[in-house]
Design a protein that fits this description.
about 300 residues; alpha/beta; Quinone Oxidoreductase, Chain A, domain 1; Rossmann fold; 2 domains; seven-stranded mixed β-sheet; globular; Zinc-binding dehydrogenase; NAD(P)-bd_dom_sf; oxidoreductase activity; ADH-like_C
Length: about 300
């Protein structure tokens, strides 16, 4: 099968190469999926799991990519809940990766059924941003109706999902980002927008929840705009910033079939829109991940026409 592999930690996305690799086999509780569309987060190339296995042994050349949508072609021993020929979407294990390829073996529990009226590109684009937003808002942030949410990077793949889900939950949403992203952030559900390059973040006043995707100084400043008892949720790594009388939580998403089902249902009924910035083929994926212009939104690789 055709697949993208990485071998050099220092090369970044420029070090990706299209090669032929053996098709994966289904282990216990696995399914093999013929991939129709996949996604990739450039941060994967900084994760230890891309380069080593759980025993810290080198596993290169490895196939990156965790996000996928496709069709089940084989079941491993003991696999339940899915069937051959079923359309699915979800995430692979970061230590196995492998979705920038024509086939991948995935634990069945990490996948959910993809309804026939949802395109594969949509399924691949919603899995990671959708789960990140859902878990940050509802599992870790415990968002309630009537609260206010400050969403950093509100025009991006994750931020736009956060803004929409927060609005659906009855929250008041304030988005942040670059000046050029203002309209896109508003289109995806933000009711106010703060230009982080020209506006003063602290002028926002007090909010109940901050969802941070940026890190660094923005995280530290964000802690100061949270009301007593509020929560700072971040996916940018551990932070020493703490809101007064509140919580600071950094988290890594986990795959969850029930949550994927909730998310895709909202996509089906039009309440939730995915944020796809570019679609490329597997053969063109290296160029797609090294764009000459800034792309806002998710880059999706269409593996099969």
């Amino acid at each position: 099968m055709k697949a993208i592999v990485v071998t050099d930690r220092t090369a970044g996305t420029a070090g990706m190469t299209l090669v032929e690799r053996p098709e994966p086999q289904a282990a216990i509780n696995d399914v093999v999926v013929q991939i129709h569309a996949s996604g990739f987060t450039s941060g994967e190339l900084t994760w230890p799991s891309t380069w080593t296995d759980r025993l810290d042994r080198d596993r290169t050349p490895s196939i990156p990519g965790q996000e996928l949508a496709g069709v089940v072609t084989a079941l491993g021993y003991g696999t339940t809940g899915l069937s051959v020929g079923q359309r699915v979407f979800g995430l692979s294990d970061s230590y196995r990766g492998g979705t920038l390829a024509e086939y991948v073996a995935v634990e069945s529990r990490n996948l959910a059924p993809l309804p026939g009226d949802v395109d594969f590109t949509v399924g691949a684009s919603v899995a990671m941003p959708g789960l990140t937003a859902w878990q940050g808002l509802f599992v870790h942030g415990r968002l309630r109706e009537g609260q206010s949410v400050l969403v950093h990077g509100a025009a991006g793949a994750v931020g736009s999902m956060v803004a929409q889900l927060a609005r659906l939950a009855g929250a008041y949403v304030i988005g942040t980002g670059r000046a050029a992203d203002r309209q896109k952030a508003l289109d995806f559900g933000a009711q106010e927008f703060i230009d982080l390059e020209n506006d003063v973040l602290e002028d926002v006043g007090g909010v109940d929840l901050v969802f941070d995707v940026i890190g660094g100084g923005i995280t530290k400043r964000s802690a100061g705009v949270i009301r007593p008892g509020g929560t700072l949720v971040t996916i940018a790594g551990p932070t020493e910033a703490r809101p007064a009388d509140g919580l600071a939580i950094d988290f890594v998403l986990v795959s969850d079939r029930a949550q994927l089902g909730e998310i895709v249902q909202r996509v089906r009924d039009g309440r939730l829109r995915t944020n796809i910035g570019n679609i490329a083929t597997l053969g063109d994926s290296v160029a797609a991940f090294n764009p000459t212009t800034r792309i806002v939104g998710k880059t999706i690789i269409r593996v099969r026409p």
